[in-house]
Amino acid sequence: MRVVITGAAGRIGTQAIEELAGAHDLVLLDSRGIPGRRSLVANLAWPAARRRWLRCLQARAARWPRAFAGADVVLHLAANRLPVAPWRHVLPDNIVGTWNVIDAAARHRVARVVFASSNWAVKALERELAPACYAPDGAKIGSDAYPRPLNAYGISKAFGEITGRAAVEEGRLRSFVAVRIGSYIPGPPKTERECRLRIGTRDLRSLLRRCVEAEFDGFHVVYAVSAQPTAPYDLAHTRRLLAWEPQELS
Fold first, then answer.
1. Which one of 72, 121, 138, 186 is at 20 to 30 Å from 127 when CA atoms are compared?
2. Which pLDDT value is given to residue 53?
3. Each residue of 9-36: pLDDT tens digit?
4. 2-242 belongs to CATH 3.40.50.720
5. What average pLDDT score do residues 180-186 get?
6. Quick one: how far is CA 175 from the chain centroid?
7. Separation of alpha carbons 249 and 229, rounded Å
């Protein structure tokens, strides 16, 4: 398959490349070049520029939708990933950019978009249910939980999920999967919170592969956490949809 990866130079993007490079034809997009790999510099938000030389650079960076032609899957990882990011950064990076990616995928008849959402899309619900949802036998947050964000970053992830769902319901995309990522930090967890939300590298890579390769249609939400019993999320739908089982424990 031909897989387009946005945000390919990021922490998760580099893991996706390592996992998928041997099996699929990858098209790599990022706001900066990727050393040692052929990639396209992409300005997903297409901001207006006042200076002529900057307009020229941005015109080149705005050619990225052409790369979607002939793609089977778009793995949309590009975003400002800081939960405390101000709105002036969240708007172009996470909202305008996500809209443009989903729209470009639909226009080029890409069958599937895999969207890197976040636990911050349901953070208000998590706080409401805590500490019960952290208990091994407590009520967990399922894939059917509607977005309930707490900040601009969470709002942007909720926007991406809703936009993807609309594209599927309109018939513009065949499938869209929102991956509510807990916390991917290479190495062992340092805090109790990191332990609860953590997804290890091996689990992350295998989950992304299944999001790309598994056979399913429609709109879906899955959770990206490893198998720790204190995670606040229910992995039942993730396991069932993707035929995936986490292998790592925090």
1. 186
2. 45
3. 999 999 999 999 989 999 999 988 888 8
4. yes
5. 91
6. 14
7. 9
